[in-house]
Task: structure prediction
Amino acid sequence: EVEKIQIKITSLGLTESRITADETIQQLFVECRLNNFLTEETPLSLPKPPSGQRIHYNYSTAINVGKEDNHAEREYLKAILLKPDLPADSLKFTVVSDPPEDEQDLECEDIGFAYVSLKEIFQKQRDIIEQDIDVFDSQDASAVIGKLTVTVEALNALRSVHEECKND
Result:
């Protein structure tokens, strides 16, 4: 069986902020990135929810980190486990504003970021299942603009990588 990091982006809710107030922000999608390797995104962008409500993506994906063809990804996971000061130890989720059809001159804009620490999953020996994580404003990293409900199942892959580290 190929080792994978399973990721599910369930839903997104916004709190009152510049995002909910900004009428040019209408459609949102979510991107998930592991370091510089791989970016996955929800196939749909959904209408921005009013404050206090949620939009549901129910999007699942998997990042393969099996030994066969994913050497760089595995080396990165090893670095996360072995180097305590590696800053980029997280899966990064980006909430992106998708311009409306009739405004094609507008760019997709990153409006918020959320993070799941893979190192923490390994330290706690616990996957993250349907957990609300904070989404921070892309223009002000201290401001929380909403919650993203995600699942990240990485423990088995991390354990396997850790075993390999011990054998190297």
